[in-house]
Amino acid sequence: MFKDYQQDQGQLLPQSLNDSISPDHTARLINQVIDEMDLSFILTKYSPLGQKAYNPKMLFKVLVYAYTIGIRR
Fold first, then answer.
1. Cα–Cα distance, 16 to 25 (Å, whole number)
2. pLDDT single digits (tens) 36-59
3. pLDDT score recorded for residue 73
4. What is the dihedral of CA 18, 20, 26, 30, to 10 degrees?
5. For residues 41 and 49, what is the distance between their CA atoms, to the nearest angstrom?
6. What is the rounded CA–CA span in Å between residue 23 and residue 28?
């Protein structure tokens, strides 16, 4: 139903996203908090028809992080 979403997927440089983010970075806190949230009320709204959607948890993480660093547009 959703596009593939793997945070631990290996890359050429850096080999993992975790390698480029410090252990005490705000993004890690946001990631942990949103992963623990129950977003099933959002997941039930998605249709299996049509193009695969981006994972709502990933989109929510991006939105919250953007607001945290002052991006509002």
1. 15
2. 999 999 988 988 898 888 999 999
3. 81
4. -30
5. 18
6. 7
